[in-house]
Design the sequence.
């Protein structure tokens, strides 16, 4: 991998008032990976899912960078990263690149904050390198085979078929339809903010990554389950669960499973929030995050 470089030419559609950060890129064999590296102090790594990107975490970045080193990648195929049509876009591929980025930046003793597909992607890193991750924050995510959830199974089968390919590649279905549908209150998604999620995917050729992750809901079930069987690597670490209770995908039943898996975790429920908690709750996440991060490791939970 080549050295990280700053990006002096952000795209014209980027709202610099909302996202005033200095983007960096890491050249990988598959394409340039965009990421943020803001502030100084103990590292906090924020991992997005689909079809979002580092913009999802902007309130957290602004609120933590005064005291922490906040690292936020855009997965390849998302946000301001390159979108090569033939790259590997399975969750395992994204996890591999995340680990490579964190190794390049020599990130140790990190707090890992994950959302949606960022869960299996980020937790794969934590399970493989438990000595490099000290704390966990989980937001509306999972780490097991989804085939047993009838709703997810139906959605996964649709996404994997020809209708799903058409919706994702031709109609930009994921950011256009699924983001509003995931909100607890759709009125909270302003047109200006929604544009920041639509703009990274201007053409069918740019939409392979979200389409691939849609297919991976079911297709990668064995990979998720292998991670789940190794979840002991996560147990005992201070953990915080920040959960939108009106999530139509990963709602209360998923939170209950995490409570059982991580009994040491502190749990904060947001009764009116849906799936996209970092967007819907925004800066209101910060008091809980600061409390968790500021506590000594043995007391964080």
Sequence:
């Amino acid at each position: 991998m080549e050295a990280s470089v700053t990006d002096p030419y952000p795209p014209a559609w980027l709202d610099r008032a909302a996202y005033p950060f200095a983007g960096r890129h890491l050249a990988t064999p598959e394409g340039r990976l965009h990421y943020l590296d803001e502030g100084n102090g103990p590292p906090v790594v924020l991992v997005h899912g689909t079809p979002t990107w580092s913009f999802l975490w902007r309130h957290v970045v602004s609120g933590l960078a005064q005291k922490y080193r906040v690292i936020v990648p855009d997965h390849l195929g998302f946000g301001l990263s390159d979108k090569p049509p033939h790259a590997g876009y399975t969750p395992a591929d994204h996890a591999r690149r995340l680990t490579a980025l964190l190794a390049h930046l020599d990130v140790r003793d990190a707090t890992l904050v994950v959302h949606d597909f960022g869960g299996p992607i980020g937790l794969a890193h934590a399970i493989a390198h438990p000595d490099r991750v000290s704390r966990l924050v989980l937001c509306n995510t999972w780490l097991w085979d989804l085939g047993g959830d009838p709703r997810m199974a139906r959605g996964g089968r649709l996404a994997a078929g020809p209708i799903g390919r058409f919706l994702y590649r031709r109609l930009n279905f994921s950011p256009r339809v699924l983001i509003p549908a995931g909100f607890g209150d759709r009125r909270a998604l302003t047109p200006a903010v929604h544009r920041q999620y639509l703009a990274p995917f201007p053409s069918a050729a740019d939409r392979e990554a979200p389409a691939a992750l849609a297919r991976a809901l079911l297709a990668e079930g064995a990979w998720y389950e292998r991670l789940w069987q190794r979840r002991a690597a996560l147990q005992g670490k201070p953990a915080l669960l920040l959960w939108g209770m009106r999530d139509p995908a990963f709602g209360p039943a998923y939170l209950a499973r995490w409570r059982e898996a991580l009994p040491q975790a502190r749990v904060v429920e947001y009764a009116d929030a849906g799936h996209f908690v970092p967007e819907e709750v925004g800066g209101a996440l910060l008091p809980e995050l600061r409390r968790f991060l500021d506590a000594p490791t043995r007391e964080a939970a």
About this structure: The two ends are 37 Å apart (CA to CA). DSSP finds twelve helices and nine strands in the chain.
